[in-house]
Design a protein that fits this description.
22 helices; alpha+beta; 16% strand
Length: 601
């Protein structure tokens, strides 16, 4: 942080280091994209091929390990409380962050098929790359899914930075649309968003800036103070990694352009520091996003009790954009409490409801009254983005509050095909599988919970897989209780699918008697599972399939592993035959591995 007390844009002294430890392993998409969030936190991004061990100088001990993270993610930092946390994981080599008028967070992508990512709190997104683990392992190996990027059709690589247009000097038809900078193709692209549940899809509608100069490389944009858009042009003929590693770039050739509508005037009144609090409140409905966001930040820094009272009245009285801005300002000023937040859950503006949940949820526990109000909202809420935020907040809450909100959301049928909400609800349950497994399983004591469509389609298989993958005896005993409680054959098949996926390619763990009994009495267990459970008839049949070169290699490999769990002795002759004559490398590898196990034993 560079102090500038007299506001002349010249630092008054040496910088104050708030965060340290960001990595520089790559030539682009290192720590970047710093932007103020409407909640008063500073948000930033990290690209896919770098890592960090973030510490807070002056607070953390000198030898503190820091917050380690590999690969792409979005972080945030509160400059007053000095808290640092990962906001969302994954993304498309994250470069640049943008909050739109409703406080949604977006970033571009350096791959194809999309104009970017829409980030929600605690979201886990694709870690870009075709090679598993290339950009770092998933922070949670039991996520069993990832939130998608905004699909956009046949989009070539890439739009590395996007902003949501919201400036008074820009065309009216552009307002709210995404503007993307594509340095590879030397142009800017305008895209419209369409609602897809709790997120969006995009469609390209125009290329408002094109350039035949091969060195034109737009890499960053911003909604400017005067209502226009500023564009940073890297201006380099070559943008490959090699030139940058070898410092073969021109540090003097960069350019900044301004984009505006010819018929629009530029805003001259940009010294908001000189405004009174009352004047700043009046700017909360300003059509220029920079004015609104700056007014929010200034009110949060200096609001007194009289101003807080005015903001409370404004938030409750307004129905549109000014209400949301007023909520953000009131929160940053320390004037939002659980009582008012509970009242705002009935506000007509859906994003006021959503942000009331998010802002109070950042305390990581809700008061009893607010929790009850949010739980009732989860049942009746009609806007998917609000329901998504309830799930995102639930991930941060104590066990009983988290599971209560998740069960309310899972009781609904309107989110079964939502791109975000089912996975978010799963992550709430998964977070408590490690230390509060019994509390999670208690949800399934009621057979009506099994029958909820969201639970059937998105939870049962993942929960069984999670318990088996962890592999402890208590976890496996929980699997037996789930199977015993299932109301129908279809539910048991979902659970068994999760069981089979968890042990795929692995040795069968030692099963508690109760679980082995449940599995043996299934109506129609899979062939491989019957082999693994020691069914003699199935084992004999499996030996024939393993030796049959006309059968699919994948099926034979699976059966080799399954048979190896129960009787290596019967399998020995078959394995030796495969090693001597089998043409498929995968089958030979599986046979060799089991043969080595047999020799070692």
């Amino acid at each position: 942080f560079y102090p500038d007390r007299n506001a002349d844009d010249i630092p008054d002294g040496d910088p104050v280091v708030h965060l340290a430890g960001f990595g520089f392993e790559d030539t682009h998409s290192v720590a970047n994209g710093n932007t103020w969030g409407p909640d008063g936190w500073l948000y930033g991004a990290q690209g896919s091929t770098v890592s960090c061990r973030v510490t807070r100088p002056g607070i953390d001990p000198p030898n503190a390990p820091g917050r380690y993270y590999e690969g792409c993610m979005v972080w945030r930092y509160h400059p007053y409380s000095r808290q640092f946390e990962i906001f969302a994981e994954g993304g498309g080599n994250v470069f640049g962050l943008e909050f739109d008028a409703e406080g949604r967070l977006f970033s571009g992508h350096n791959g194809g098929g999309t104009r970017g990512f829409h980030y929600v709190q605690s979201g886990l997104y694709l870690k870009q790359g075709k090679s598993p683990g290339k950009f770092g392992p998933p922070d949670n190996p039991f996520a069993f899914g990832e939130l998608p990027m905004m699909s956009g059709g046949n989009i070539p690589r890439f739009s590395h930075n996007v902003i949501a247009i919201n400036g008074t000097a820009m065309p009216d038809v552009w307002q709210g649309k995404l503007l993307g900078a594509d340095p590879l193709h030397h142009h800017l692209v305008l895209s419209e968003r369409s609602v897809r549940g709790a997120s969006f899809t995009t469609r390209d509608i125009d290329f408002p800036v094109k350039n035949s100069d091969v060195a034109f490389r737009p890499v960053y944009m911003a909604n400017a103070t005067d209502g226009s858009v500023l564009i940073a042009d890297f201006y380099e003929r070559y943008i490959a990694h090699g030139q940058h590693y070898q410092s073969q770039i021109d540090p003097t050739s960069g350019r900044i352009y301004r984009l505006r509508a010819k018929t629009k005037t530029l805003v001259a009144d940009t010294n908001l520091r000189a405004k009174t609090n009352g004047q700043l409140i009046g700017l909360l409905a300003h059509p220029n996003k920079w004015h609104r966001q700056t007014a929010v930040r200034l009110l949060g820094q200096r609001a007194n009790e009289a101003t807080k009272d005015k903001l409370r009245k404004s938030v409750k009285a307004e129905t549109g954009r000014a209400a949301l801005q007023g909520l953000w300002a009131l929160h940053q000023a320390g004037g939002l409490d659980d009582v008012l937040a509970a009242e705002l859950l009935g506000h007509p503006h859906p994003h006021v409801r959503s942000w009331a949940v998010r802002l109070r949820g950042d305390h990581r526990e809700l008061s009893a009254g607010l929790f009850n109000a949010v739980q009732r909202l989860a049942v009746r809420e009609g806007h998917p983005e609000v329901r998504s935020q309830i799930a995102g907040t639930a991930i941060r809450l104590p066990r009983d509050q988290a599971l209560g909100l998740a069960s309310s959301l899972l009781s609904r049928t309107d989110d079964i095909d939502d791109p975000f909400i089912p996975l978010q609800c799963w992550w709430v349950l998964e977070r408590h599988c490690e230390n509060d497994r019994a509390a999670v399983l208690r949800l399934f004591h009621n057979q009506d919970f099994f029958r909820q469509p969201m639970v059937e389609q998105h939870i049962l298989e993942r929960l069984m897989r999670r318990l088996v993958a962890r592999g402890r005896q208590d976890d496996l005993a929980g699997c037996a209780r789930l199977l015993a409680a299932t109301p129908t054959k279809a539910h048991r098949e979902k659970l068994v699918a999760g069981f089979s996926k968890a042990i795929e390619g692995l040795a069968l763990p030692l099963l508690p008697d109760a679980l082995a009994k449940q599995l043996r009495h299934l109506d129609n267990p899979s062939f491989a599972l019957r082999v693994r459970l020691g069914d003699e008839a199935a084992l004999g049949q499996a030996l024939g399939v393993i030796a049959d070169g006309s059968k699919p290699a994948r099926e034979r490999i699976e059966l080799i592993r399954a048979a190896g769990d129960v009787d290596l002795g019967q399998l020995k002759a078959t394995l030796l035959g495969l090693v001597q004559s089998e043409p498929d490398a995968g089958v030979v590898t599986a046979a060799l591995l089991l043969s080595l196990i047999h020799i070692s034993e």
